[in-house]
Amino acid sequence: MPEALKFNTAPGNCCFKFHTREIPLQRVSNITKTHSACQNQAFIVQTIKGRQICYSGTSQWALDVYNQRHNTEGSSQQH
């Protein structure tokens, strides 16, 4: 099969346990959503130390962080 027609149906990283405590924003290096094929929709927060923490897809804190990070990408903010 040609390379262009191959696709990956694996969902990648999925979350099964969720963290409920907020972490300081300065410790968040990245936040992503889990794949839509995962049983539980969630956010995966990567810390500056490389730790990955799962938050429920209904976590208002995680949603706010996700929207903040993805709406400010490409802006002129300095860290």
TrEMBL record:
Its main location: secreted. The keyword Signal applies. Residues 11-69 form the Chemokine interleukin-8-like domain. It is found in: Secreted. One of its GO terms (biological process) is immune response. GO terms for cellular component: extracellular space. GO terms for molecular function: chemokine activity. Transmembrane segments: none annotated. Gene3D superfamilies: 2.40.50.40. It comes from the Eukaryota. Keywords: Cytokine, Secreted, Signal. SMART domains: SCY. This is Chemokine interleukin-8-like domain-containing protein. It comes from Sander lucioperca. The lineage of its organism: Eukaryota, Metazoa, Chordata, Craniata, Vertebrata.
